[in-house]
User: Fold TetR/AcrR family transcriptional regulator from Actinomadura rugatobispora.
Amino acid sequence: MSETTTRDPAARAPGRPRSERAEKAIIEAVLDLLAEESGVAAVSIEAVAARAGVGKTTIYRRWPNKEALIVGALAAAKRPLHDPEHGSLRADLVELARQIGAERGDRHARCFWNVVGGAEKHPRLYARYRNDVIEPRREVLRRVLRRGLERGELRPGVDPEVAIALLVGALAHKTPRDRLPEGFPEAVVDTVLGGIGTEAALGTNAER
Amino acid sequence: MSETTTRDPAARAPGRPRSERAEKAIIEAVLDLLAEESGVAAVSIEAVAARAGVGKTTIYRRWPNKEALIVGALAAAKRPLHDPEHGSLRADLVELARQIGAERGDRHARCFWNVVGGAEKHPRLYARYRNDVIEPRREVLRRVLRRGLERGELRPGVDPEVAIALLVGALAHKTPRDRLPEGFPEAVVDTVLGGIGTEAALGTNAER
Assistant:
């Protein structure tokens, strides 16, 4: 079916670009409000509608409630990590570390900080954020580590969750918007791969 | 001079215990307000005075301004790390990791999260917090790593700031009040000491 003869009204309706603009404006409004000092508490359907310049119905048509709206906006701002598949554990981890590090300067970085900080007060929202936004990203890290293990590059016995905590923790350390020093992602990966201890330190460990 | 004959009015003034109680109430009020969703924005001398049940003058007599008051309260809640001096890098790091991990369950944990998250909005407060509260703690970690290097337990060439980011980052990861799983501090230290990569992974690195 050629574009000119289509009869699908949604595909060519004049309202469609406006609807996309509205969705973008709503997501931006949610992220702007979430980045405010009061975080999740600053977000209400009313405040989002006013800031985005849309009616509340326009919001409810897309997201059934505030929780779905916030998680949707966070998912739009924090995309799944791209699996580099370079064929080497170090090359993959360096690229992932750079991706994670590059997100720090983002103007939305504070949204995520506020949502994690508000986890205790908004446990359902936080659980959904973890599940919908964070877990798919961690899954990419797990996959990279698994391939490294299969290629004999990851020490058997290393707990992947501890390895991920080291990598992500070191890169997320500092304030939400501080940029990382030049070469920091590479230094983190090399230090995690090679370890900081000599045989003497590891011997102490075995003797315990 | 015996206690009964002292003429120092401050030392025996009946107001002294009351004054200590007031100071404690003020610090608790600051920490409670800081842990609120709006963080630093929730703290004002008025709000602290009302919550602590003291007059504003009582606060100003001890802290010249809001910034000094907040940093003073944070310093009271987050003490310098205790340097274990066990004579082994692993033993020292494990004890420090346990100290840091144990703070996570603390009801004040969210104060620190909020102050770091508000760094961009309150840069002077954040700088002072880093300098007065965080730096002395990092200095203990640096000292432990330095002793490890002198004993031949730390690989020469390891950047202590990267090592600290790995250790602290992995332990601070997750939400501010989530407790760490049993054995996690030890797993973090052993994984940082021994590294996650095999010779094959490190060889890849050298070939780059």
Notes: Residues 1-12, 204-208 of chain B have pLDDT under 50 and may be disordered. The first helix of chain B runs from residue 9 to 12.
